[in-house]
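Standup notes
- HV: blocked on the assembly model, inputs below
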Amino acid sequence: MIPRILFAALAVATLALPAAAEIDIEEIETPGGISVWLVEEPTIPFVALEIVFRGGTSLDPADKGGAVNLMTALLEEGAADMDARAFAAARDDLAASFRFDASDDSVSVSARFLSETQEAAADLLRVALVEPRFDDDAVERVRAQVLSGLRSDAEDPNAIAGRAFAAAVYGDHPYARPGDGTLDSVAALTRDDLLDAHAGALARDRVHVAAAGDITAEDLAALVDRVLGGLPETGAELPGPAARSFDGGTAVIDFPTPQSVISFGQPGIDRHDPDFFAAYVVNQILGGGGFGSRLTEEVRVKRGLTYGIYSYLSAKDHADLYVGGASTANARAAETVDVVRAEWARMAAEGPTEAEVEAAKTYLIGGYPLRFDSNASIARIMVGMQLDGLTPDYIATRNDKVAAVTVEDVRRVAAELLDPDALTFFVVGQPEGLTAGN
Amino acid sequence: MMSMSRRCSGFVAAFALVAAPLAAMAAPDAGVSQFTLDNGMEVVVVEDHRAPAVVHMVWYRTGAADEPAGVSGIAHYLEHLMFKGTDDMGPGEFSDVVRANGGQDNAFTSWDYTGYFQRVAADLLPDMMAMEADRMTDLVLTDAVALPERDVILEERAQRVDSDPGSILREQMRAAQYLNHPYGVPIIGWRHEMERLDTEAAIDFYRTHYAPNNAILIVAGDVTPGDVRALAEEHYGPIPANPEIGARMRPAEPPQMAARRVVLEDARVAQPYVARSYLAPERDAGDQGRAAALTLLSDLLGSGTDSFLSERMQFGSGNAIYTGAWYGGMSLDATTFNVTVVPGEGATLSEIEAELDVVLADFIETGVDADKLARLKRQYAADAVYDMDDVQRRAQRIGSALTSGLTLDDVAAWPDAIQAVTADDILAAARDVLRPEASVTGWLTAPAETPEVTQ
């Protein structure tokens, strides 16, 4: 039993939430000319460092699929005078951790190291990025791992759905090809291909850097120059905009599994479009944020069709999409697709209610300051902001931009953005009552 | 110019000197306090004032291993149903309130615990407590909301287990590993029993296990112990204890006498592998030495490029493309020690399994590499620093410890227990645990046109 009065009080508390996060970002220009963002937080004696090179697997030439991915996986497999095991031992001696990842838009490095070991950690990171060895035995060992992953992907309904989606939507853009490559393309990669991928992907003209933790601006500037100074000034040319072909149909990819994996999408909206925040609110109401969204309510809560359904605005460097997904029993896949199509059309036609818009805005506003809760997350957010072309003052003004969105904006943007005729489904499984076609 | 490796080793010497003070600065009990309400509800506060946020968690000392026979999955189904309303709040309203304030909420079920949490602005803590206290005893369920949710958990099972041959193998191996203890029953439940779960079974489980004297409140973030105490007394204090709740008594494992073998053939398997599990002792209150040794054993065997399995099977023979070892000591009752080997092209499962057994025997024969052990201990000391960055993870670790029979003192003593492990301790633990008669060997494989002869 709880007093009702408490919930009246809650509505008031909403308005009293901090509207802006207080994060003190220092913008540093290193002597070597690299721009770095820092949040100095000396409480815990370590540093979280994020380095992102724009480009990623989309830089692979058409006949070298998987080169950037394999190159990235080999950065920690031997550098300078260390082979793979010596490098691992040196890193572990410092109790540092480095994660190297390749995605379709970037190669990213997440590093963390103790403040006391920052110079040695920087030296180690430098050789991984600047002087990787690509030893034959390491290449073959990691190549076998990548090939094993590709064989598993061929039997994984989620991976199959992702590939079918990309191949159908992006035309002849690199996005249409699997970033990890194919069995044939990876098998054919040579050491020279890896050196080319390295020279093309890791260059100073496309790097973004952010750090949070126990380090001064002066030390960080020196550290970043030390790590990145030996990289070439320029790299490979970035691909242009991708096609976004959505025919509004439902493609079925037969695969023997008890549950159908459903991916859906349509064109999205540019991150810098004046209507972006209104679109963000539209998605929050339709399929964002898990519980409370219309899709979760209709597909999961009312009908029990799935464990989870989601949608999000996907702002890739070369294509803005609006996408989503769910998994559901083969027997009920057709019903799930129908409900999603109906909700898409209903939101386009009628827009959200005033209460839905208010709830979405208070969620987005209230949740924003809570994101800045650790060195690791602050560093990640800052480098993400740089990739989005934002400036540090965005943090202080972002919530005002959400607050400024009106119900009329959201309804107008819902009608403009949501395109039920373009909403295209890719279903992997053996869905009953679902046939391919428009 | 000095070589890279020499520069690093010079640095390591310097670092060894600072490791101890670092560890002391970042002890797991820094900023942690504890008290108990009159009704028996335990409270733990973890202070971290870097962000104006708070994580509010209630953990119940009950999980899938406390279910009556025949209703597997009921602990987890109840966890889902706890969002379906009370006498005061409608279905979904709890989450609506959290979300309307920018917060996030969720819940989790394991064999030993069920937990509910919200992450919100610190000034919303009183409201979270009011709602969580409400659903501790006032849950109201109807078939209209509960039956679609049963379909949801069946879809969850389909997604997590039935769609993934590796998950099916793990489920079958656990069932074979535990001869008598309910850890052999999956948390999500067996499908045929899940299909028959109902609100009555859920309410039975709820009435039996949900009460303040079976719960732990953990509040982590921008709070003070004084404020939390006052709020906890106000919101949770009035709920009466359930005197029926006693210590958890589960069927114990008999001596395990025979190696078991599980072979899963599934057309969806593209990459076959061998998995091995051994019954292993867990961390016990005041007695964590063996578990600490097993933790380091798993790292030495199967964690990272320079681990023993990797050196022998990936770098040495080259027959494996992946090797790994894992041990989870946080468990109320006997846990498992696990090893996985993925063969490269050209090696059969029989061959890779035989090689694994040779390599495990060699490890015990060869002894522990002192440099590697020292390196691992330095990493654990540093982890204590890195762990301080994530207050929710600290709260999570404390919750799973307290629901696994450990105390805050045990959590605080764990880093020292790791540092105290000797090479001999690790070899003794390996001899104790890596016994074929307490093991299950699992093969994941695609149906062969000409079946491989199994041994």
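- HV (later): unblocked. Chain A has two domains: 26-228, 250-429. Residues 136-153 of chain A form the longest helix (18 residues).
- Next: hand off to the docking folks.
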